[in-house]
Amino acid sequence: MWYKIIEIADWFGELAERYRLIKNFNRAAKHSFITGVAPTLLEAKITRGESAYRHAFSKWMGGGFRIKALSGRTLERLELIEIGRVILDNEELIRRMISLGWDTLEVHSNRGFLGLKWKLQDHANIGGFID
Amino acid sequence: MQIRDSLVIEEVSQIGDTLTNTTNGSYSLWFWIALLELTFIIVLIFRLKKKQSKLPLSEISKRDIKGKPTTQIDMDNLMNSINGARDLYKVLSRACHPDKFIGSEKHQISEELFQEITKNKRNYGRLQELKNQAQESLNINFKD
User: Fold this and answer.
1) Which of A59, B23, B45, B55 could bridge to A101 as Cys pair (CB 3.0-4.6 Å)?
2) Is the pTM of this model over 0.95?
3) What is the ipTM of this complex?
């Protein structure tokens, strides 16, 4: 019984951590846009994700981490790829995202339906995951 | 008052009828529908569990990860990397290229530095550190 209660408490804790990560990303993106470092305002949000990229920790209806350009200059395809690569190169972040239930990274432009998707698991370099 | 009493008696007799029906073995249609629904739900849960066990990373349990220390992700550095790492990498890779130091005693240092720069080409914070290191060890003056 206690184990179940702890599990429920953990579930809420994990949910809070997910939203904290999103909030931190959006705060940093907003700050860099306001200071003029970034030409485009980026926003992260939770989406459904790609069902083919699912893993054991994937959250139901919440496996996608979408970064969307909101305003400013329209991003080119190469710039979208660069944003994705910077995120994917950060192994710590990717592992954290996987453990928090994300399985797909999506980067979308502010114009049209142009968007790119990556499978997070391919970039986590999981081998010594538990160690 | 009498009407209410008669209604209660009627309801009690109806319940009694249904109870006798169930004991006789003739269950109502709704009972069979509920049973069917329950079976369907159990099968779905079973299939879901089976499917989850086949997913990648299923061999790692949540409890294994729970005790591990969590690292703080530096989002400001991530934003700087998105916006400035590419340009900084270009500047550093040009300035610290080992071919520029052939025959010099700094060749070995530049080679190591260049490898480190290539490894961290999308990490702005680390590239800044390497820039300072290059200024000190290779005496390169970068235009800011």
Assistant:
1) A59
2) no
3) 0.84
